[in-house]
Each structure stands twice: as structure tokens, then as C-alpha cells.
User: Fold this.
Amino acid sequence: MTPAAGPLEASAVVLGGGRGRRMGGNKLFLAVDGVLLLERVLRRLVPLFPEIVLAVGPEDEEPLRRRLPSLSSARPVAVAVDAVSGLGPLQGLTSALKALRGDWAFVVGCDMPWIQEAVVRSLWQAREAGSDVLCASVDGYLEPLHAFYRRTCLPFAEAALASGDRRLKAFYGDVRVTVVAEAAFRCLPGYRRSFQGINTPSELNRLTDLP
Assistant:
């Protein structure tokens, strides 16, 4: 069955890319041919979600806000700023969940420009009444940075942070995780690319096949 069209009843959350040591700079501000990597990510998300939230560290808030007016996004973009810098993606998730207008967030990194609409919609369709997380399994591994999180995850994510565990999956044992098997995506051409990020300068320079 083909997933239904139209915006999903969820927000999109894009997590800032940290210091990007291998990339030579913060991934939030990396560009190819004058186009920010972040803008390429937003182009994929805007048709799918009524709200876009960027979760960034305190040091990146002002540089990002200066660039927001130039981003060609058809949706308003909100900025959620981490209370503490340098605590990784779990801190970004907690900041974003606090800022949401609704109950669900699709969370990705700012270095994931190949997000596939059909993959996202298939993941969303797998939610159940008690789901707190919708997470795909690819090659036998969970993909926490291309997943849906419900606001109900917030206290458990905060508790994991307080304990010193900064992994996105740190609180999975405390909530109901609906795992979507890879078989659900195999009929979708190029589904693996949806989960891929940009990790090296050479990968960044090969972004010639994107619209």
C-alpha cells in the first residue's frame, strides 16, 4: 500500500552537527556550491512536516539565526538552544522535545541530505497506540538518528543525560520502542540512503546528484 500524501502529524527536528572535526567545521554551516548542507536537508523535510525545529548549541545560536532569512524554506524554522553545550545529540533531543508544539518529532542530523519521503512515511505508519519511539532496524542495527520520538520520551531522556549517558538510545529500555524491520523498506528504491549522513569532506564534495 502506498503511504498517504500530505504533511504528517509530527514536527521535524534537525540536530546541529557538533564541532565536525573530520569535516573541518560545524556541519550546520558547511556548503557545496554556495548551498548549505542544512538547506539540502530542509528541502527534504519541508514537504512532510508542518513544523521544523533546529536544535543547536548555545555557541551556534547567533550564527544560525543570521543565516535563517537566507534559507529557502517554505515553513517557519524554530530554533531550540541546548541548555548546556557539548553534550551531544541526546541534549539536542531533549531541547527539541521541550520546544515542540505537538506530540511527535522526526529527528535527523543536519548532515543527512538523502532523506527519502517514502521511507519516512513507512516508518510513521508503523506507530502503535503505545509507541514512544519509532526506530528502523537496518543491517541488524537500530537507527536512532532517523527516528520518530514522542514527547513522552522527555523525562527519560533527561534522566539519561543526568546519569552521564549521552547516547540517543540511552533511554530506550525505559520507553516503548516500535522497531520497524528492514523488510518494510526493501520495496523502496534507494531506501538505505535515507539513513546516511555526510562524514568526510570527500562525501560532501560528491553532492552533485541532489536537487
